[in-house]
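Same chain as my last thread, 194 residues:
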Amino acid sequence: MSWPATVRYDTEPAPDGLALVQDLMNTISVGRFRTTDLLADLGDARAWLDQALAQWSQTTGAPLPGIQLEPRDREELCSFRDDLRRAARQDREGSLPPLHTAAVSTQLGGNGQVHLEPRGTGWRRVAAMVLIEIFQGQQAGMWQRLKLCRHDRCGTVFFDRSRNRNGVWCNVKACGNAVNVRAYQAKRRVQRAS
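reply #2:
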């Protein structure tokens, strides 16, 4: 089993539950090779969600949540995905107005640990799960490593595994080289013209 959206772009998934966030963001049709939008219709959205939740459960060891998407949920889930992509594209120090809200409950476990539990149904429950994963990723210093490829023809969401956290390409050989070659060629044309 694998993350259905992220595997299409030959990108390594983010660690732990943060891969669910990455996978939702990668359901859009982007990348060097255009693929279908996995949320384009309700059937595709349900298929993506079922596989992504099964992978999330396997990755995190959490019980498999049963979430049913209704027709009205698909559009909201697409909007939520777009907001996540906008947030990832922003300078992490900058700020956006609040984008989405989801209900989450907190519970003090017998071990003294506070646990976050998603609430709601349909897209709201998916959003709550994703926001919990983002919150936990922020606490672990990993959310900042989830980035959109800077190649203007790509836009794949990748997890930056570079030591200094300054990676900008989902694939240095494909996207990074293409951008650098175009920049070099443009610079050479300007030099020859002058």
